[in-house]
Amino acid sequence: MHSWVSRINRVFGVVALSLLPHAHAGEHPPALQTPPPEALIRSKKWTERRAAFNQIWQGLHIDHQAGGCGDLNGGASVAVRSAVTRLLAAEADSQEAAEKSVGTPNEQEIDEDRSEYFASLIQATECLHDPASVDVLLRPIVLGTGMMAIRGIAYMGDAAFPRVWAHYNAKRDAEDRELYQTVLRTMLVEHYVKEPKTVRQLEQMFLDLGRSTNAEDRSIAIPALAAMNDPRGRVELEQIANSDPQTIPAGRYARDPNAVIYPLRKEARYALLGAYIPPR
Asked: Which domain holds residue 93?
């Protein structure tokens, strides 16, 4: 995993609270409808790009402390949404280029302010639902930061599905494929996709994953199998609950040192009881 990603995952807990002054409770500044100067957006200096983003951020009315999107006051203009998407793309470009040139940077050398800026960009992009942001959010360096980026894509549902599906079916490493599987699962479980053909396509995908020889595939499939309308989902869940072969050592406190447990059987049983909640 990128060291940027591990830092961002921690930063999301306190995302950008110190970057900008906030309005008092119940007060909202006017929503920004005109993007910042293009020279700032296109700047090679991340601090200048952050200055452009700060102008936008103040008008988004995101509920920072609750981690939600809050009141966007009718939404930002198309030009502002596009500016945020381009700023996120520029930051992803910069970080990917740095990793290619010098390898993964030492975590202690990563600037905390820049990590917060990256986290804030992803949060804003999630909230703005710009269809043009899908390919940027799908980049592993962005998507790998966690559920904020995943939700940002999944929420766009049918509009985003073709691009997510294309990325998923491209030849990528296992970690990237799991990220795309999680986006598609969120689309299905949270009912963000409405088109019947797309729903059936996703249901078949997760039925196939539930029968996979790969334990990670089966684990990712469990919440989707529980959520789908197709009765075959329950059949597959029962199959996993009763006979999934995945084992892990029971641990040093087990009476039998050779004892094992079946984690996916347990997950599937919880899902059958309606008690399984996928990670967020």
From this structure: 1-155
Instruction: Name the average pLDDT for the chain.
Output: 81
Is 52 in the same domain as 148?
yes
Backbone angles phi, psi at 276, to 5 degrees: -85, 130
113 and 28 in a common domain:
yes
Portion of the chain with pLDDT greater than 90, in percent: 46
State the average pLDDT over residues 20-49.
70
> How many domains is the chain partitioned into structurally?
2
Which of 276, 252, 280, 279 has its CA nearest to residue 264? 276
Q: Is-contact 55 95, C-beta < 8 A?
A: no
Give the Cβ contact number of residue 134 at 10 Å.
Answer: 22
Q: Which is more confident, 277 or 233?
A: 233
Please determine, for residue 10, whether its predicted confidence score (pLDDT) is greater than 90: no
pTM of structure: 0.79
C-alpha of 49 from chain center: 23
How far, in Å, are 10, 107, 168, 231, 241 from residue 210 at the CA level? 31, 37, 17, 14, 11
